[in-house]
Amino acid sequence: MTSVLRSVVTGVGSYLPDRVVTNADLSKVVDTSDQWIRERTGIQERRKAAPDQAASDLAVAAATRALAAAGRTPADVDLIVVATTTPDLTFPATAAIVQRKLGCPVGVAFDVQAVCSGFVYALSVADGFVGRGRSKCALVIGAETMTRLMDWTDRGTCVLFGDGAGAVVLEPRVGEGSTADRGLLGFALRADGAKQDLLYVDGGVSSNGQIGHLRMQGNQVFRHAVVNISEAIHAAADDAGIAVDSVDWFIPHQANQRILEGVARRVGIDEAKVISTVAQHANTSAASIPLALDAGVRDGRVKPGQLLLLEAMGGGLTWGACVLRL
User: Could you give the domains of the chain?
Assistant: First the structure.
């Protein structure tokens, strides 16, 4: 075997805002019900950030926990990549704000915008630094305040999303170049801008100067999600040199329980291997994969040395998958 440098996840952390918004709460402001939401999405509740909480605040809380789990401090961090579609400001990057709030030294900090696929994209980008020896301690964070993009009169979208953040610490480790190595082993990233109208926000700095609201053609998104994600999963598995059914845990983007189950069936993954947290926090976009990963680590299901499969699809349309050994 040839020795290679791998980007290894050494710490995981997450954060959810204190305020819980149940399906019953939403039924008081929009024409919906707990039964309607549960049957179609599996969602029971979501979190809503406080008025004075920005995406960077959620990111800092998650990053602090990830650093503690890795046995690192902000002084060790030389790279921060934040995946977000709800940045604090137009600029600077939310990653730079996180760097300042954590008290990290001068280093590299920038955002990645691929909506719900953002965390998988950000892992791939960070791997280009850590796996080449250009970063010794990287924070990869997904942080979102999606409730601020909601049209609270649209029951088809406002019930689906919540706020939260998740983070991992990536550090370089020498591996043997085999699938037994710890670290990021394979990726498949995709985008199709022709599908923009299926899922987008109708506002922007250079278009109309507004924040806008999230708009979605739910049935079309569901159909594309199952087909496209399945293809990316097989491509990432091929890139990693592993069989899909050999993974220990499937940790998907937490968009909709029906999508999670549909993808698992299509690619032949036992549903017992699927980590689902969508009921507790709804769709938190780029934050959902690390939130689910941290939940699995904290409850003891996900253990060091296990093979994990991550996937997501979001507006753009973007989608992708990643294979890693924890």
Answer: 4-175 (3.40.47.10), 183-325 (3.40.47.10)
